[in-house]
UniProtKB/TrEMBL annotation:
Cofactor(s) named in the record: thiamine diphosphate
Domain Thiamine pyrophosphate enzyme N-terminal TPP-binding: 46-161
Transmembrane annotation, as ranges: 6-26
GO molecular function, one term: magnesium ion binding
Protein name according to UniProt: Putative acetolactate synthase-like protein
InterPro entries: DHS-like_NAD/FAD-binding_dom, THDP-binding, Thiamin_PyroP_enz_cen_dom, Thiamin_PyroP_enz_TPP-bd_dom, TPP_enz
Protein species of origin: Stichopus japonicus
PANTHER family: 2-HYDROXYACYL-COA LYASE 2, THIAMINE PYROPHOSPHATE ENZYMES
GO BP field: isoleucine biosynthetic process; L-valine biosynthetic process
Record keywords: Membrane, Thiamine pyrophosphate, Transmembrane, Transmembrane helix
A Gene Ontology term for the protein's cellular component: acetolactate synthase complex
SUPFAM superfamilies: DHS-like NAD/FAD-binding domain (SSF52467), Thiamin diphosphate-binding fold (THDP-binding) (SSF52518)
Family: Belongs to the TPP enzyme family.
Domain Thiamine pyrophosphate enzyme central: 266-395
């Protein structure tokens, strides 16, 4: 009797393990999904076509690259969609160029490079985009999914390298995931505090079905069971990659999230500025970010009539001869100002870590990034009002609330006189 019980228990365990293995395989390789969404085995379409359509739907006009076999389908399809593909001499240049496009247009900058050391070459430029808060999409090739970790060409752990640098990192596993992953990556890059994102594409999600199947290494038909199992496994993997891959999907942009100031915060700022005799604005690069057009921001600054120091991407915004553009002796101006608006400007080394801000001044700080907003606060300086919000939108709303406000002409003239004095002494 004991032997029968042991035998039944053993059979039951084996059946349960077998069922668990089947369930795992069904889930991992989406066997049920493949049944209802079979791969288009004779289609010449490939994953590169989908990447190009998503980029085009997001207004990408330039794609910077240093071409390689892993990513060729993206470049070919992008050119066919009317996106200008610009081949660079070094991968880091491709990302620097994408960064420049993003800064100058406000749209996402896009670059694609091949796998391994070609991707690692971009790290300096990606870090630069992170520090500059620039929305850059970096796409990289990768080894065939089935060969990852098996010594394939240029196969390294790319994700661990880019996770500390990027707001979003994802490895696309199937063709059907290309559009959703890319759309989410671009949304994250442009949301809140902008920054770089990275999407990895294994070769087998970019080429067409027949090419992938050809390169999958199917064994020639043999009578042995192991060859048949390996072939079945490989076919299942390839089928999962392409199942439902070219069905109609949405390619357009997802809503971008931007922090906005509350009406109460705007009113507080209006009240502080309206009582000021010597107000001052220090503008940082965040002021140029969408959704506020730079021309509208310039008009708002001119309407407020508050003297401004311009930094980063805001340089040149007011024009060479603007009476509000102050260039020299910022430290002296900050000592005298009774209200200072740090509009995307950060109290880091450029403001001597906040030491140049007078304790007598009312400081209004606005920044999308909370850590930058309060950098060195409480130690070197203290904000009267700290607002985590889009800078351009905030200044537009404050300008509307300051209708009729007139900044002291004597204050502006004294700052301009220092400008002229300093510039004369520099000759």
């Amino acid at each position: 009797m004991a032997i029968v019980e042991v035998l039944l228990y053993t059979i039951g365990t084996v059946v349960l393990l077998l069922l668990a293995a089947i369930a795992f395989a069904v889930h991992k390789y989406s066997i049920i999904y493949q049944f209802f969404h079979p791969p288009a085995v004779n289609s010449k379409s490939n994953g590169g076509d989908i990447v190009a359509e998503v980029l085009k739907a997001h207004g990408v006009k330039f794609l910077f690259t240093l071409c390689g076999g892993h990513i060729s389908p993206i470049n070919v399809a992008a050119e066919r969609e009317g996106i200008r593909v610009i081949n660079t001499r070094h991968e880091v240049t491709a990302v620097f160029a994408a960064d420049a496009v993003a800064r100058m247009t406000g749209a996402i900058g896009a670059a694609v490079v091949t796998a391994g050391p070609c991707l690692t070459n971009t790290i300096t430029a990606v870090k630069n985009a992170q520090m500059a808060e620039t929305p850059v999409l970096l796409m990289g090739g990768a080894a065939v999914s089935l060969l990852k970790g098996r010594g394939a060409l240029q196969d390294i752990d790319q994700m661990s390298l880019f996770k500390p640098l990027c707001k979003f990192c994802a490895a696309v596993q199937t063709v059907r995931d290309i559009a959703p992953v890319l759309r989410e990556a671009i949304r994250v890059a442009q949301s809140d505090t902008p920054g770089p994102v990275f999407v990895e594409f294994p070769i087998d999600v970019l080429y067409d079905y027949q090419n992938v199947l050809k390169g999958a290494g199917l064994n020639s038909p043999k009578g042995d069971l192991m060859s048949k199992i390996v072939n079945m496994y490989t076919m299942s993997c390839v089928g999962n990659i392409f199942a439902g891959g070219f069905e109609l999907r949405e390619y357009g942009p997802l809503p971008v999230q931007r922090p906005m100031a509350s009406s109460g915060q705007v009113q507080q700022a209006v009240e502080l500025v309206s009582r000021a005799k010597k107000p001052l604005i220090i503008l940082g690069s965040q002021a140029t970010l969408p959704p506020t057009p730079v021309d509208e921001l310039r008009k708002a600054l001119e309407a407020m009539g508050i003297p401004c120091f311009l930094g980063g991407m805001t340089r040149g915004m007011l024009g060479r001869n603007s009476p509000l553009h102050i260039r020299q002796r910022r430290r002296d101006a900050l000592k005298e100002a009774d209200v200072v608006i740090l509009a995307g400007a950060v109290p880091d080394f450029r403001l001597n870590y906040g030491r140049v801000l007078s304790k007598r001044s009312k400081i209004i700080a606005v920044n999308r990034n909370k850590s930058q907003l309060l950098l060195n606060a409480g130690v070197m300086w203290r904000p009267a009002l700290a607002v985590q919000a889009d800078v351009g939108s905030f200044l537009l709303e404050v300008s509307k609330g300051l209708t009729g406000f007139n900044c002291s002409s004597e204050w502006i003239q004294s700052l301009k006189a220092r400008d002229e004095e300093k510039e004369t002494s520099n000759l």
